[in-house]
Amino acid sequence: MATEPRQPIMEQRMLIERRRELQALDAAFQELRRTTDGVPRARHRGLLAFTGPAGLGKTALVAEARARAAAHGFTVLSGRGGETEQGAAFRVVRQLVQPSLAAMDGAELRSFLGSWYDIVAPALGLEARGSAPAPDPTGVREGLDWVMTRLTVQKAPVVLLLDDLHWADAESLTWLASFAPRVEDLPLLIVVAYRPDELPPEAGELRSPAGDRGNRPHDLALLTADGVARIVRNEIGAAAEDRFCEECWSATGGSPFEAVELAIGLAERKLSGTESDLPAMRELAAAIKGPGLIERLERLDTATVRFAHTAAVLGSPFSPRLAATIAVLGDEAVAEATQKLRAARILADGHGPEGELEFLHPLIATTIYRSIRTAFRVGLHNTAAQTVLAAGYGPTAAARHLLEVPCEGSSETVACLREAAREYLRAGATEAARRLLNRALEEPPPPEDRAAVLHELACATFLIEPTATVRHLRQALAERAVDPDLRASIVFRLTQALAHTDQLAEAVNVAAKEAKQATNPRVKLRMQADQFVWSMVRTDDPGSPARSRTLARLAEQLPGRGLEERYILGLRAWDAVKRGEPRETALAYAEKALHGGMSWIDENHGFEVPVSVALVFMYGDQPRRAEELFNKGIAECVAKGWRGSHLALGQTLAGYIGYHRGCLAEADDLAREGLRIAQKVPGAVPARWFAVGILVQTLLARGRVTEARALADEHRFGETTPNAVIYPDPRTVYAELLLAEGRHVEAAALLSAVGDWLDGRAWRNPAWCPWLLRLASALAPTAPDEAAGHARDAVKRARDFGAASTIGQALHTLAEVTGGPAALDLYAEAVLHLEQSPAAYELARAQIGLGAALSRNGRLQEAADRLYQGLEGAVHCGAEALASRAREELSVAGLRPLPLRYVQADTLTAREHRAAGLVVRGHPVPVIAKELRLTEQGVRLLLSCVYRKTGTDAAGLAAFLESCPPPRP
To answer: Do 403 and 376 meet the contact criterion of CB atoms below 8 Å apart?
Structure first.
């Protein structure tokens, strides 16, 4: 196809009176130039914005930025929004990134993207592997951050140019707004141009960059009369009369685009700029845009007009070959049309590698598109949809055009829209998928497909509008003859959406109704599992004890052959923990549930049950096993791009496991990371509740009461009670904060209410919620007998459950509220139990409590041993206030702290490994003492270190030793 030499889209003449903007551009480039080896030196400007209405020269400034960046030797990545392409998700991102990726072969590309490949591939227009669960939008944005960061480091310095940002697709705009704050840490400059009145809300920080960082947008002004005169005289000669130039300024309104186009037209007509030329000038000015532009276009031949109309429908830039196919024009006709449209300054060459064309200015494209007769425009869109599909551009490219075509009940249209929506969901573009599926419903689909389309639409709206999800799923359930497996998925998603919209009771009722109606045993079990899940999440479940009995009877009958059965077994394990049944029962059901595996990313079952099963091991004094399961689940989420509420909750609860082990600094970090993620995700309110509660509890254990109070106040923690069950229980955690502040009366009232609620549900395990222990502490100063009664009740419940850490904590509280010589034996028994558990922080607390009691009773040598042990444990745990208390007690007793040993590693020493092996073989302490030539007390201390290092009690040692080879001698 013949082409002429490329004609500049925006010429140097449009930069008149843009000195301030060009200086800003040069200053930003100089700052960028100072970067070395891809590592930027300190600089304050990473974003440069040019703003103003249409025609003020924004595109000319972007073009000048491109030229100057190339002159500096910078890498340029560019993209441009399109008025008719705003619905194409990640279109602008692809414009930015695809040219760089296209230079890589398949192996190089997979190596470059690494573990992010499957997450970002659909968003970048690459072929994804397999049918993995769709990533969430947060995961995709983080993946794009990584891709752009890596590209920047590899190709530094980089200039990223974005023209017509106001027309960028929402997904690209949202990503760019979240990425922009990171630019100042990279050898990267972003230059954007947009119309401020049309910039969508997704632009975020791009709308009003902080002025104190030198990033205030540059608002472009209209040209002065002198500026227009310079443009005119540059074209037709210095002899142009002043009045003529002033009339040119009046006719163009000072618009640089119109002034340049007018000046070029004047030169082509060979006008000299006299008063007699004014009528011709006004005629030329009227033809630059609006009706005059259309009249000028329609004076060309029919084929050229059709080609221009097709180009406007395709959007800029476009493939001339594709436009030729749609317009039914041969190569010769296309070459002639292109030449004429170039000469008329309507089209110009694009920047793409395949000979693309684009409109000289967005105003021209908009005017021509809006001038096309409706019926003809619809026909062009319909033909374009078929043509782009046949040309291999994919269903998303076709779907953009189908959205402009009236509904006709076409099954082919529905199929294309559904497939395009699936692609968008795989790219994390939920809003784009929703638009297409809504349109598919309007088509409408064949009756037998309607339930499936409604289900797909509900999945697309779940993260952005759960109330709409509920509506769509109820409509899907009302359809006739729905496939049983599809119906089960619909019900599961409906119960999830109801739960997320604070309708937990209705979620339970829906699952119960479906369970009664189901005839397929597997589907029936699935519905029963959903019913039990949401019943346990409800804070106001009226039939909790009866439901627990039903669950227990059902679980007894199930061998755990399929996933549905294993979910029931997992729920039975979790219920057993909350009820305080023997931990052996809970652990046995948990192991049975895990036989065959449980995935956190199974979209048809949710991750609530796998998470609960993992926590059974934490409460059962085997937190290392819980950590392993969480690490695996978190890795699944990360690998699949689930970096929203799933990851937030996973990180937070991993911190809770660390808290139970006594790794307080690690727990602090994990809970903060979970909170950070949760705050980025719209609607992740439960994840925030979990994170704040666990972080407050961890800060209190570290002695940081002021920080805990500030965090609670910031998130209004304690002021409201969530309608879903959260753990640790928010009210109990808030009562702990009140106790730390000395507000015992308020804490007691709050804890009494918690106790009434939990006892009503028969959730009696102090490991799951230690409200009884905290109530005893709250009442001790004013009602010591009542406090002791509560503590004794807690000890009994702890013994019923049987976890050494829980028994030790309960005995410790009983010792504290008892006081005097009678407390010594209770303290000693608490330490004895805690030494058999992995709970390092609670052991340190009990040791210091025992040491202080021994000191007050004059037994200084024994006190010193316990206080030294407790001090060392507190320091290793990161419990600063507890360590300070140990030092104070040593000082009161007239003792000086000994130098602390090095921080304990998780690795067992040879002697510890040998002792662990003897425990696994069933040898009692006296036999182990004889074998290792230690005292029995020495063996107990050695094994206590083993339990803390391995993260398990004696019952879990065998599994640990199987996975951990013995140390070399």
So the answer is: no
Q: Which residues pair with 36 in a beta bridge?
A: 39
Cα–Cα distance, 821 to 144 (Å, whole number): 64
C-alpha dist (Å) from residue 438 to 164, 169, 401, 418, 445: 28, 18, 15, 10, 11
pTM: 0.84
Q: Which amino acid is at 772?
A: L
Query: Cβ–Cβ contacts within 10 Å for residue 937, how many?
Result: 12
Nearest to 458 by CA among 500, 410, 497: 497
Q: What angle do CA 390, 392, 395 make, to 5 degrees?
A: 85
Question: Closest by alpha carbon to 7, among 361, 347, 317?
Answer: 347
Q: Which residues on neighbouring strands pair with residue 538, listed in sequence order?
A: 724
∠ CA(732), CA(736), CA(738), 5° rounding? Answer: 110
pLDDT score for 44 = 52
Q: What is the dihedral of CA 597, 603, 609, 610, to 10 degrees?
A: 40
Whether 834 contacts 843, CB under 8 Å: yes
Beta carbons of 817 and 788 less than 8 angstroms apart: yes
Amino acid, res. 923:
H
Token pair 């994919």 is found at 394
- What is the structure's pLDDT at 3? 34
Q: What are phi and psi of 160, to 5 degrees?
A: -105, 115
4 pLDDT more than 50: no
Residue 51 phi, psi dihedral angles, 5° rounding: -130, 155
Number of C-alpha atoms within 13 angstroms, CB side, residue 728? 29
Instruction: Please give the full DSSP string across 190-230, using - where no structure is assigned.
Output: EEEEE-GGG--GGGGGGTS--GGGT---EEPPPPPHHHHHH
Token pair 């990473």 is found at: 46
Q: Which of 298, 293, 397, 328 is nearest to 84 (CA)?
A: 397
Pairwise CA distance, residues 781 & 942, whole Å: 37
What is the C-alpha separation between 238 and 163, in angstroms, rounded? 34
Q: Distance between CA 596 and CA 541 in Å, rounded?
A: 31
Contacts of 962 (CB under 8 A, 6+ apart): none
pLDDT at 135: 83
Instruction: In whole angstroms, give the CA distance from residue 157 to residue 766.
Output: 58
Q: H/E/C letters for each residue in 721-761?
A: CCCECCCCCHHHHHHHHHHHCCCHHHHHHHHHHHHHHHHHC
Residues 7-64: tens digit of each pLDDT: 443 445 668 999 999 999 999 998 888 865 555 555 556 889 999 999 899 989 999 9
**Residues 730, 717 contacting (CB under 8 angstroms):** yes
- DSSP annotation string for 368-419: HHHHS-HHHHHHHHHHHHHHHHHTT--HHHHHHHHTTS-----HHHHHHHHH
Assign residue 36 a region: left if phi > 0, alpha if psi is -120 to 50, beta otherwise? beta
- End-to-end C-alpha distance for the chain, whole angstroms: 79
The per-residue pLDDT for range 189-234, each reduced to its tens digit, is 999 999 999 999 888 777 765 444 456 789 999 999 999 999 999 9
Count the residues in the chain: 969
Rounded to 5 degrees, φ, ψ at 723 are: -85, -10
Q: Per-residue pLDDT tens for 91-126?
A: 999 999 999 998 898 888 999 998 899 889 999 988
Q: Using CA atoms, how far apart are residues 51 and 59, in angstroms rounded to an integer?
A: 10
Q: Give the β-pairing of 75-80 and 188-194.
A: unpaired
Residue position matching structure tokens 């339930």? 451
- Give CA–CA dist 272/279, Å, rounded: 13
Tokens for 438? 């809504």
